Amino acid sequence: MLSTPSRRVASRLSRSPLAWKARIQPSWAFPSRSAHSSSVRKEWLVIAPDEPGAINRRLKARPQHLEEIKPDVDSGFLVFGGPYSTSTPEGGASPTMAGSIIVMVAETKQEVIDRLQKDLYTAERVWDWEKLQIYPFKSTIRMAMD
Known about the structure:
Blueprint: H1 4-15, E1 42-49, H2 55-68, H3 70-75, E2 78-84, E3 99-106, H4 109-118, H5 120-123, E4 133-137
Antiparallel strand pairs: 1-3, 1-4, 2-3
């Protein structure tokens, strides 16, 4: 148990503008080995631009796409993802979606490619595979958006 002065300091720190730092989870705080393998799993950053004119295909496929990725989220294979925009919407307008940013955890880059090839956004020609980029990645900060 903290002494009275220590509790006061802890209380002040929790209200400080930097209190969010206490919630930062470095990537090494997350499991790095597969439960079924002794191989080291790595994070992979995927930048998947949309094909020109794909917005209607994206919007039509989105509900099914979100449903189909749930097992990858639950298993820890997919740890981050969402659309990116090329402009900031004004006056409450919806943002334009220009592609996807994804972080996956896998042993190899090929594992990531194989999963992306099975994705509905690939089948529906939402993502532009000519411009798709995959990089090894090491997350430093991982926080959920409130």
